[in-house]
């Protein structure tokens, strides 16, 4: 099958997204509005009959003083990754972007490579000889993933080094934690929690913690907790305007695309989180909490309420997003891994992000610049 690629309207793109059971929130048309430093464009793949069979949100960032661009498709594009003729999808994309002045393309195939059950992750953390999750035998090796990676390499794509969450250089998390919801009752879901999680939920209920849905006017209250969390966990916080822009853009596309949850206790907001939904996939996006009154366990109460609401929405998966792949006890992120896996989540490894240099000289210069930053 040969594919024809061209720019499509936001409406065409959104119709395609809503026709699929699961598409990353980073591949919705509205996500381009969240990133004003990038120029967003919707691309569509059409089959010989003229039907839209694939789509991608591409973000273009211009180089200063040059009419050349970085192109980024976070957790995309949404195409048939399992096909034997993958190049028929990717070659038209590269040709189109090259004509647009793009010198380097980065994409994140939404392809799962391996999975580790909660029990396997727990055993790996307890094993003094285990250093990284990727070195531990996986519970499931997804068929076809290794073949897709090899075909990308043969076509000239290069896998990027794992990074953080912010910016083109860092990219999206390769390892995430997901709680399966499909076919499970709330009772079965809670039975999958470890003892600490079940105990903490009971503590929060007994203490009178109330979790409520917030609105746009509650974002400043969430942000105050978020800044405190950033100081405690040693990361650079995004500005309040980022969350306000995110709310405006995503809810304009779908009123239920983004939700805000706040955990209250004795008139004080102790924790907050944002939740994103696309089709049957729900993400815990950003979380924040204060160090005060941690004994009433607001974070467990918050997550349990969000999981219950995701279940009510008919979600197939509740996605905790990024986790560390290190098993080092001295790493402060290991506690976050324990927290997420404690909710019965499985560790999931994606194929990661891949680069294609359309102009090798500019691509190499960019790499040297980013390495010095």
UniProtKB/TrEMBL annotation:
It comes from the Bacteria. The keyword Magnesium does not apply. PROSITE patterns: FEMABX. InterPro entries: Acyl_CoA_acyltransferase, FEMABX, PG_Glycine_Bridge_Synth. Gene3D superfamilies: 3.40.630.30. Keywords: Acyltransferase, Cell shape, Cell wall biogenesis/degradation, Peptidoglycan synthesis, Transferase. The keyword Cell wall biogenesis/degradation applies. Belongs to the FemABX family. This is Peptidoglycan bridge formation glycyltransferase FemY. It comes from Streptomyces thinghirensis.
């Amino acid at each position: 099958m040969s594919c024809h690629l061209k720019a499509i309207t936001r409406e065409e793109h959104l119709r395609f997204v809503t026709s699929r059971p699961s598409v990353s929130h980073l591949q919705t048309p509205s996500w381009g509005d969240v990133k004003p430093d990038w120029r967003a464009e919707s691309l569509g793949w059409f089959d010989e009959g003229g039907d839209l069979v694939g789509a991608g949100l591409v973000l273009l960032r211009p180089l200063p003083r040059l009419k050349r661009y970085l192109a980024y498709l976070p957790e995309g594009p949404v195409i048939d990754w399992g096909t034997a003729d993958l190049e028929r999808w990717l070659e038209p994309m590269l040709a189109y972007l090259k004509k647009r002045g793009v010198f380097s393309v980065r994409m994140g195939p939404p392809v799962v490579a391996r999975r580790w059950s909660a029990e396997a992750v727990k055993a790996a953390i307890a094993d003094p000889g285990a250093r990284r999750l990727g070195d531990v035998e996986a519970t499931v090796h997804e068929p076809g993933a290794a073949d897709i990676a090899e075909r990308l390499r043969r076509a000239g794509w290069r896998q990027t080094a794992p990074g953080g969450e912010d910016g083109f250089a860092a990219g999206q998390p390769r390892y995430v934690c997901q709680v399966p919801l499909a076919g499970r009752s709330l009772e079965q879901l809670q039975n999958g929690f470890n003892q600490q999680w079940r105990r903490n939920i009971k503590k929060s209920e007994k203490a009178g913690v109330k979790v409520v849905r917030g609105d746009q006017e509650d974002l400043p209250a969430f942000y105050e907790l978020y800044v405190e969390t950033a100081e405690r966990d040693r990361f650079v916080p995004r500005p309040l305007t980022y969350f306000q822009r995110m709310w405006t853009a995503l809810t304009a596309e779908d009123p239920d695309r983004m939700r805000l949850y706040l955990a209250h206790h004795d008139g004080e907001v102790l924790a907050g989180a944002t939740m994103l939904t696309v089709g049957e996939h729900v993400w815990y996006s950003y979380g924040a909490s204060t160090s005060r009154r941690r004994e009433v366990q607001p974070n467990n109460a918050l997550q349990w309420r969000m999981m219950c609401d995701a279940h009510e929405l008919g979600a197939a998966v509740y996605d905790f997003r990024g986790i560390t792949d290190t098993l080092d006890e001295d790493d402060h992120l290991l506690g976050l891994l324990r927290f997420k896996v404690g909710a019965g989540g499985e560790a999931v490894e994606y194929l990661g992000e891949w680069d294609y240099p359309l102009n090798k000289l500019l691509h190499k210069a960019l790499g040297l610049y980013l390495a010095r930053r």
